[in-house]
């Protein structure tokens, strides 16, 4: 390939990837079309190309294929039946356990101690943070790769609820906790649905320091969130309330957010204290 | 566009995006070529298309342009001068602060309490986890969009060190903590460097439950990590040690990992307790 061809190729490639990213929306309803082993393998290989801290791959991915487990997981994730119906279900784990095993079983811990070089350090919240970064970076790599393969996807943040039961269901070890979860499949039908709105650039990007968004900025930033604004009508207020009321009642003070907070506290404590 | 054209277009698009993902490597040295406002704007718009929980955009991005701040940040992030030299420096914040402001200043908290619908709930670790997911998902969206625009990128996990100073430098509020950081720029020269190896699919993906990798599995999973294996020779062991020794001494028990753990503890505590 000569330089001009390469440049042309790159430019074409560029735009198409940007278009894929810009056209992406969450898919919650899947067709019966099976995902072939070949496609799955391309998806997995692309996922693993995600950058990872120190190239340590501080994550693992549990592919849930057992139908009973899928159904149990659907219940544990705020009762969302679409999870049990999804052709592909991946739980992304922040994983320091494999390195703890490797350090100990290889003799590295003992050698360092005998040579007076280092004392054992149990993983803490810093490791947890770094492992979470690795796992979630890999997840979004998977989302875009899937999109490029024609597969729809949806994040299931609810996987951080009911930690004790999720832990038991997935046989988690101390230094493995759910970072996020994804479901994939071919979209149920050609879905020509409007893209969900996003906040304007100026409301997310700030220069040199954090500038607290207040009432005016937030009202402007979320002015386009029509779908959520329509739901405002269902609030039990005389004058129907505002977008802030909707998010406050239906999200922030909801039972599932309370559970996420309880569950994550147990999760982080388990990582640190066992 | 008719169906065949659309299909052809999709298939071509697919492969090119997958190729971009598979060819991506971290870039730590940048050319002087400036990033135009137009390119920057395309990058930002693509970044914001990242999926976010409940479409709440639970993150903010601080673009550090002030050269003195860049240099200070470079020092705080384990003294990496490449940060100060990078044309674009973005700190991704998990951000619940803007919603706390919105809930309070809009009157949503008061209305809910007066109507007997909900009592105020301060953000906890569950919110932190969910906000981190949002921020890191957006970061990897930015990485792939950048790649498609010819821009190289590198994650700086070290942004979670020295929290007290980073907080002061970036004027962080209680419910805003660093989730990750990225630097971008055009690569210093056409870099035909070998891709860093990744673990085999079978060592990252597990079926239905977590299966602890032990010595044998870890040795096989990281057998291809040549670059790190070459560094093993620099260890102060007679027989030069193993890959596990390298990672244990140079990463796990390093000063920067200890600092990450101390710093993240302060960070999470601040979010919960102020």
Helix segment tally of chain A: 13
Taking the sheet with the most strands of chain A, its summary is: 4 strands, antiparallel
Could you state the oligomeric state of the chains shown? homodimer
Fraction of residues in β-strands of chain A: 5-15%
The total of beta strands of chain A comes to 5
**CATH architecture designation of the domain at 21-189 in chain A:** 3-Layer(aba) Sandwich
| Major β-sheet strand ordering of chain A | 1-2-4-3
Distance between the termini of chain A: 56 Å
Structural class of chain A: alpha+beta
Q: Count interface residues per chain for the largest interface.
A: A-B, 137 and 137 residues
Mean pLDDT of chain A: 92
**Rg of Cα set of chain A:** 22 Å
Question: What is the helical fraction of chain A, as a range of percent?
Answer: 40-55%
Task: Spell out the CATH superfamily of the domain at 21-189 in chain A.
Answer: NADH Oxidase
Q: Tell the overall outline of chain A.
A: globular
Uncertain ranges of chain A: none
CATH class of the domain at 21-189 in chain A: Alpha Beta
Key terms for this structure?
globular; NADH Oxidase; 274 residues; 5 strands; alpha+beta; homodimer
How is the topology of this model organized?
The structure is a homodimer of 274-residue chains.
Chain A: H1 3-23, H2 37-48, E1 59-63, H3 67-76, H4 82-85, E2 88-95, H5 97-105, H6 108-114, H7 125-148, E3 152-155, H8 163-169, E4 176-185, H9 201-204, E5 205-207, H10 215-221, H11 226-231, H12 243-252, H13 255-273
Antiparallel strand pairs in A: 1-2, 2-4, 3-4
């Amino acid at each position: 390939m000569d330089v001009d061809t390469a440049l042309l190729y790159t430019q074409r490639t560029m735009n198409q990837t940007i278009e894929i990213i810009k056209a992406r929306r969450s898919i919650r309803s899947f067709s019966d079309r099976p995902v072939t082993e070949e496609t799955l393998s391309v998806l997995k290989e692309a996922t693993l190309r995600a950058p990872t801290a120190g190239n340590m791959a501080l994550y693992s991915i549990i592919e849930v294929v057992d139908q009973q487990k899928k159904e149990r997981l659907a219940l544990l994730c705020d009762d969302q039946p679409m999870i049990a119906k999804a052709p592909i279900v991946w739980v992304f784990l922040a994983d320091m356990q494999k390195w703890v095993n490797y350090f100990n079983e290889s003799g590295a811990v003992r050698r360092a101690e005998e040579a007076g070089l280092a004392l054992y350090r149990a993983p803490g919240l810093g490791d947890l943070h770094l492992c979470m970064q690795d796992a979630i970076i890999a997840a979004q790599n998977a989302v875009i790769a899937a999109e490029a393969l024609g597969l729809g996807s949806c994040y299931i943040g609810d996987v951080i609820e009911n930690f004790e039961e999720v832990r038991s269901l997935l046989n988690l070890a101390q230094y493995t906790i759910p970072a996020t979860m994804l479901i994939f499949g071919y979209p149920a039908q050609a879905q020509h649905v409007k893209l969900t709105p996003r906040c304007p650039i100026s409301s997310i990007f700030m220069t040199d320091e954090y500038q607290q968004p207040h009432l005016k900025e937030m009202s402007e930033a979320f002015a386009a969130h029509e779908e959520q604004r329509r739901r405002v009508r269902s609030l039990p207020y005389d004058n129907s309330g505002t977008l802030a009321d909707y998010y406050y009642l239906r999200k922030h003070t909801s039972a599932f957010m309370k559970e996420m907070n309880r569950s994550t506290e147990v999760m982080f404590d388990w990582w640190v204290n066992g």
